[in-house]
């Protein structure tokens, strides 16, 4: 077999092969092997100047390498990106004692294709490397699609959880969220306060201007409460025109008084709607639990309600702190207050 014929055949059958002369110089490089050199021509270079032999070890010269014929080699290109390659070395079987080295990327084919801009035309038609590459690409695509699906499902789960604890009209926390917040605070020893807030004259807005006006008022009041409280506070809508504000880590009654005063002042400002001025006010009842609340959440809410209706009885648009003496009349008084339309 002549050199020209042998090289031509190998270029088709093993496009990543090298023909090495007896002295260790690269005489010929297959078309795909040529691409490994990038801008550097492989032919004419010493094999061991282009490739480092990682395994077997202790390869000091080409004669050491020649003795490893029919042995699987682990190579690494000396030039960046220092691509790892598998190889097998066999004698060409001619009088010139040339060697043929067939190269492969092995399991690093994806990196090799990327680093050297290869395509399926750079591999032999019978080479399973391309099929493996397709399988790897399919696996990558499937994993990416799975990741996107999991991301969407995670987003949907978070959205559903958020919706479950959010008042749909105002965007505030709802009663379920409030219960969780109070449970955590009541179990700790950090002082906190609870404000029950009820809108005065809200029924008149609904009766005269309709529920659209009422919804608009509720959204504006919700915005005011968010603006007049801290980021760490929880503002919840717990009923039609009933709101609750939970203020953790409160160490001063003046802080609560100022917060209540700001809310009352701003809620009292007319709220424009469709050419009309909606006028409501806010009555507030506050319980300050300085070292927790021994009676639990139900009693905490009940005490805040008592303070709230004390504000209602005192003329509305007021802020009243709970006093244990308010419990003296008993539950019948609170029920009478709730039935009394004058307190609405």
Automatic annotation (TrEMBL):
<dbReference type="InterPro" id="IPR000160">
    <property type="entry name" value="GGDEF_dom"/>
</dbReference>
<dbReference type="Pfam" id="PF00990">
    <property type="entry name" value="GGDEF"/>
</dbReference>
<dbReference type="InterPro" id="IPR029787">
    <property type="entry name" value="Nucleotide_cyclase"/>
</dbReference>
<dbReference type="InterPro" id="IPR052163">
    <property type="entry name" value="DGC-Regulatory_Protein"/>
</dbReference>
<feature type="compositionally biased region" description="Basic and acidic residues">
    <location>
        <begin position="330"/>
        <end position="344"/>
    </location>
</feature>
<dbReference type="InterPro" id="IPR042463">
    <property type="entry name" value="HNOB_dom_associated_sf"/>
</dbReference>
<feature type="domain" description="GGDEF">
    <location>
        <begin position="190"/>
        <end position="324"/>
    </location>
</feature>
<protein>
    <submittedName>
        <fullName>GGDEF domain-containing protein</fullName>
    </submittedName>
</protein>
<feature type="region of interest" description="Disordered">
    <location>
        <begin position="320"/>
        <end position="344"/>
    </location>
</feature>
<dbReference type="InterPro" id="IPR043128">
    <property type="entry name" value="Rev_trsase/Diguanyl_cyclase"/>
</dbReference>
